[in-house]
Write a structure and sequence with these properties.
The protein is α+β, with helices and mostly antiparallel strands and 154 residues long. It is built from five helices and six strands.
């Protein structure tokens, strides 16, 4: 199913069954914000990632926040870029626990323990979704695409 259809189903279900969670979703990003993100990362955003942020620009932390995956808040594109820059700098600085970090990973979700849901932005596995922790590194493949997020794959 195309991601646009999946996002429409999520939105309608939230509005019908969990209106307070639907209200946590922020307005979408602009095309200029997507262009800025691509300029900052020097990577073309996969279509699914662009569509996700053109749907909503993350969720606010008040009330019942929309989670991109269980326990992971859906973060705004600006927050994603801030975290991306921080993790790139930690890797460059040689800080323990960040040696596995790759600049082609973009966080789209975060939890309170410093773990992130990432999307691989380039290469043969572009679009891959997984968790990342500075303690454990990349682990627990979540899905092969945003359309399957939250499902575990082996």
């Amino acid at each position: 199913m195309p991601i646009g259809d999946v996002l429409e189903l999520i939105e309608s279900s939230l509005r019908e069954h969990w209106p307070s969670t639907a209200e946590s979703l922020q307005p979408p990003v602009t095309l200029q914000q997507l262009d800025r993100a691509q300029d900052v990362m020097k990577i073309h955003l996969p279509m699914d990632v662009a569509r996700l942020y053109l749907w909503h620009d993350g969720a606010n932390a008040t009330g019942t926040t929309f989670e991109i995956a269980p326990t992971f808040s859906f973060i705004s594109l600006d927050r994603a870029l801030d975290i991306w820059a921080e993790l790139n700098q930690a890797r460059k600085d040689g800080i323990f626990g960040f040696s596995e970090w790759k600049p082609c990973w973009l966080p789209i979700g975060s939890d309170v323990c410093g773990r992130h849901i990432l999307v691989e932005m380039s290469g043969d596995t572009a679009g891959r979704i997984f968790e990342y922790s500075f303690i454990d590194g990349p682990f627990l493949m979540r899905a092969g695409s945003l359309c399957m997020i939250g499902r575990r794959t082996c």
